[in-house]
Amino acid sequence: MVRRAASGDEGRRPTTIRDVAAHAGVSVATVSRILSGTYPSAPATRSKVMRAVRELDYVANANARGLAGASSRSVAIIVNSVVSPHYAHVAQGVQAQAALEGKLCIVGTTGGDPERELATVQLMRQEHAECVILVGNVVNDEAYRERMGEYARALALAGSRLVLCGRPALGPDVPALVVEYDNTGGAYSITSHLLSAGHRRILFLGRRDGYTTPDSRISGYRKALADHRVPHDPGLEVEGTMERREGYRMVRERLASGPRDFTAIFAGNDLIAAGARQALREEGLRVPDDVSMVGFDDLPPAADIDLTTVHVPHEELGRTAVRLALAREQDAGMAEHVLLGTHIIVRDSVRPLRNQAR
Amino acid sequence: MVRRAASGDEGRRPTTIRDVAAHAGVSVATVSRILSGTYPSAPATRSKVMRAVRELDYVANANARGLAGASSRSVAIIVNSVVSPHYAHVAQGVQAQAALEGKLCIVGTTGGDPERELATVQLMRQEHAECVILVGNVVNDEAYRERMGEYARALALAGSRLVLCGRPALGPDVPALVVEYDNTGGAYSITSHLLSAGHRRILFLGRRDGYTTPDSRISGYRKALADHRVPHDPGLEVEGTMERREGYRMVRERLASGPRDFTAIFAGNDLIAAGARQALREEGLRVPDDVSMVGFDDLPPAADIDLTTVHVPHEELGRTAVRLALAREQDAGMAEHVLLGTHIIVRDSVRPLRNQAR
Q1: What are the residue ranges spanned by the domains of chain A?
Q2: N or C: which end of chain A has fewer CB within 10 A?
Q3: Where is the HTH lacI-type domain (chains A, B) (predicted)?
């Protein structure tokens, strides 16, 4: 709770909500409703109240009093960047569920910097967000787990809750909720889809050892190869980050380094696929006539490039994170670790090997 | 500033930062640095300090003291949705400039609901964000202008600043900064580009009377037609919102309603263009061989569909908004209304009329 300032602070009797109501000629309840922003109000009434607020300088006192209530009505999500459609769609789910529950939604962005992440978690805690949702790919090392443990305990002390979204669980002693989706299962299914079409030399774009998301996707790829008794060639796993320009770079470099030694591509996500497709086109190679390709995420631009991909329930991840965090009072028996399923979306980017230029 | 609570509130002497430092065996300055999150710190040191914070329950006191500093280190941006690439890229610019200036960035989302907008502005003010940036398309009516005037004055009273981004100015008596971009000029240029290629029947997708962004784009379209002495046919202006599915719907309905009476399309933004392109393809019409098309925004998916479009400096809009808001102390003479330019990006979605199937 933001503490109430001792009224002596001002050196004069502070303006109260009653003063504002009297000045505006409305009830205290009306002023309260309008200032809390939780109910619709007639524009003319709001206008009268806001004029009274201005004229009596009530705003300057707001932190200590009237608006403090607003602070317990927010949920927070912290992401690297809102430009990434992956993060944006999870945030959209958080926003939608927050709206349903009558809460505000605030998004913190960190640019991937752990120090900014720490400062943003502190800000959200200070703001008394009811939960703080951290999203996405991480290096799951000791320093990370310790940092998350600190966040979880500090938030729990402040009456808030840490939710990890698309990240692995921390351990039984850490008071965090976890909402994951099935990266490995999705990667297994879509690799099997390529294998069933006869492909054996499948280039994987976006290996990044130690990072949880690419690691879990590549393990699904390897498992599918093994189950189909296709020899695993580590030379087909290309390192890169999950960005469009990286997809472009990886394919440009691969094609420049020697004759093409693959018939299909498994792009670590849809952005990589879009970049890879552009690099293929610049070499006169078409998808799927010359090269088959699949992605992961089912976000824009997958529909625009007709990409067969793995659907990740991004908005559902965000909604579930909020539901889980806010339901803890009513439903203590609710799972603290949720794994959402993924499935293939078939579009037009895969050809059976025999129908494809080799 | 969050007020300091009278220390008698607790009924016992509250834990101080000195207690934490002593318990952790580090200096007060180190505790302060680690809690403020503004400096890098060794994981082992942070871990010691955070343990002391937990053991002494220092967190519960944080609002009244140690972390209050964090609240003056944030900038806030409020958008309808982070899924829209337009909003997301402006937010990205805000985040990048905030990081440069050593500030945190928080994003509020409203789902387009004015009541949530009001509550979110209050939350940001309560949080003492140094500026609150509101982005995007609005109905510029009396109620809107009054609401913005209230925000601007309330924020000014709290020592913060309202910035309108991609929205028109409010008037000389309202303490708001404005960062706009040239919608009308961009629309004029890209319509001229189609006219220069010989097109005369240009379908405009996304008319929405009263909304500032489509209104300013359609006025550039009409002005270019007039300057090229091409008769204006209001029947070529199709109503719809700025979403992908709307682009699809508008073209589906248009093609179902009679013979094609246009040779080119000016899509109100790139999302509309992507949806329109899909609808054309389902009717066997290719861009640009059968129909020329241009968009507006230069965001994904423009590159993926090879769309000639108008580049909007989204990230620069966000960066400028932050620079303008934070520079007011040092540089009082700085403009309070900035108009950023737009320009055409030529890709491969326009053919001269004589080379195109009619």
Answers
A1: 7-64, 72-182+314-340, 183-312+344-355
A2: C
A3: 15-69
CA dist., res. A297 & res. A274, Å (int): 12
Q: Do A108 and B108 touch (CB under 8 A)?
A: no
Q: Which of A49, A57, A126 to mutate to test the interface with B (most CBs of B within 10 A)?
A: A126
User: Which member of A1, A37, A113 has the closest CB to residue B122?
Assistant: A37
Q: How far is A109 from chain B (nearest CA, A)?
A: 6
| A72-182+314-340: CATH number | 3.40.50.2300
H/E element holding A31? helix A28-36
Residue with tokens 């009513």: A330
| Per-residue pLDDT, B2 | 28
Pick the closest to residue B236 from B216, B255, B261 (CA basis).
B261
Helix (H) / strand (E) containing B294: strand B292-294
A-B C-beta contacts closer than 8 Å? 215
User: What architecture (CATH level 2) is domain B183-312+344-355?
Assistant: 3-Layer(aba) Sandwich (3.40)
Structure confidence by residue, pLDDT tens digits, A337-358: 899 999 999 999 999 998 776 5
Mutate to test the interface with A, among B38, B123, B245 (most CBs of A within 10 A): B123
Taking phi over 0 as left and psi of -120 to 50 as alpha, with beta for the rest, B113 belongs to beta
Residue B358: what pLDDT?
55
Task: Please tell me the distance from the alpha carbon of residue A88 to that of residue A86, in angstroms, as a whole number.
Answer: 6
Residue B153 sits at the chain A interface (C-beta within 8 Å):
yes
Nearest CB partner across the interface for B143, out of A43, A53, A104: A43
- Beta-strand pair A104-109/B104-109: antiparallel
Other CB atoms within 10 Å distance of the CB of residue A113: 14
In chain B, which residue's Cα lies nearest the Cα of A63? B126
Q: Is A230 helix (H, G, I), strand (E, B) or coil?
A: coil
ipTM field: 0.71
* Nearest beta carbon to residue A82 from set B6, B92, B277: B92
**What homologous superfamily is domain B7-64 in, according to CATH?**
lambda repressor-like DNA-binding domains (1.10.260.40)
What the block records as the tokens of B126 is 């309560």
Over 70: is that where the pLDDT of B54 sits? no
Task: Report the pLDDT value the prediction gives residue A72, as an integer from 0 to 100.
Answer: 57
pLDDT score recorded for residue B125:
87
Tell which CATH classification among 3.10.28.10, 3.60.40.10, 3.40.50.2300, 3.30.420.280 matches the domain B71-181+314-339.
3.40.50.2300
DSSP letters for B129-171: -S-EEEES--B-SHHHHHHHHHHHHHHHHTT--EEEESS----
Which of the pair, B210 or B18, is modelled with greater confidence? B210
